[in-house]
Amino acid sequence: MGQGGPLVPDLRPNVPAGLMPARQDAVRAGLGVGLAVGVSGLAFGAAAVTAGLSVAQACALSLFAFTGASQFALAGVVAGGGALVPGVAGALLLGARNGLYGLRLAALLPARFRAFTAHGVIDETSAVAFAHPGEARAGFFATFASLYVTWNLTTFLAAAGASAVGDPAVFGLDAVGPATFLALLWPRLKESAEDRKVALAGAAVALAATPFLPPGVPVLLAAAGALVVLVR
Amino acid sequence: MSLWWAVIATCVGCYLLKYAGLAAPRKVLDHPAVRRFATVVPVALLAALIAVQSFGQGFDGPRTAGLAAAVVALLLRAPFLVVLVVAAVVTGLLRITGM
Fold it and tell me: Which percentage of chain A shows pLDDT scores above 90?
């Protein structure tokens, strides 16, 4: 870029042509989340193969289910020798919240490629999209692309070489997930007292329910925290 | 049920769940109550995820310290990616040093 000398002086150095700062912010956040969270594919690949899934089955899950929590849940059931039907049901319960994100994303994303876009509707892409209201689309697709590539690559690497890969928890990667959601939610928490209430209610409900309900249900139950605000 | 069937059922089911929200009828999405619910519900879901991922499997010292460091970084207005790095580095270092 700029090889032939700019015709118009660039008042915004370091900003590629046509990429506004707000969009650049959204894209940068998306790419960062994709790389940082995508590396957890190492954990999934290793867990899946250790559980007894084949390399192909582990990769199929990352390619076509592409929603971490559900994938880990299924691998966990297989590892424990549990019945597969309830195992699948548990995975789907964990995936149900993606449908709730879709209700909001429907207004922010293009309707034309919905069948394709739908595959990218997960926690991370939604969080980045919601955190960049003006550039939801750019944030969503940047996250989708980088997370999809990283997640699938690391799933394959770990599944193919299972024991050769160390435990990602050693590198503190288990803190990246919650830190990501916290950082993305932060501006809304700072600005709106109502959002703070909803967040506190949601977190409290989910934590209180965790010891008693199957994985996935507590987080869904937290959606009821949002209903409380609606009723009043 | 063979393992492959479980894998396929999970893949298809997860995709349909993602698709269902996006493809909800316009009439439903435009309803004021649904619109308001859709705006607020991600806050509840993401906050719940933060809580469950942080403390759902019991208290973990290094992870909690990493998140506390992330909060400090956020209060200091650190850029987004710095917040993630701070959380991972603090957690990882504490774990490696066995604290």
Answer: 48
According to DSSP, residue A195 is labeled: H
The Cα A209–Cα B52 span in angstroms is: 10
CA distances from A189 to A197, A198, A199 (A): 9, 9, 8
Residue A4 has pLDDT above 80, yes or no: no
CA distance B94 to chain A (A): 9
Interface of B with A in 53-82 (CB under 8 A): 53-56, 60, 62-63, 66-67, 70-71, 74, 80-81
Q: Which site among A35, A70, A100, A146 would you substitute to test the B interface, given the most B Cβ atoms closer than 10 Å to its Cβ? A: A100
Q: What is the pLDDT of residues A168-197, one digit of tens each?
A: 666 777 888 889 889 989 988 998 998 999
Residue B99 buriedness (CB in 10 A; 0-12 / 13-18 / 19+): exposed
With CB atoms and an 8 Å threshold, state whether A102 touches B95.
Answer: no
Residue in chain B nearest A168 by alpha carbon: B92
Task: For residue A1, give how far its alpha carbon lies from the nearest alpha carbon of chain B (Å).
Answer: 26
pLDDT tens, residue by residue, A11-45: 444 545 556 788 999 999 999 999 988 988 888 89
Residues 138-177 of A with CB under 8 A from B: 169-177
Record the tokens describing residue A61, joined without a space: 């899950």
Place of tokens 């799933």: A155
Task: Measure the CA–CA gap between A201 and B48, rounded to whole angstroms.
Answer: 9
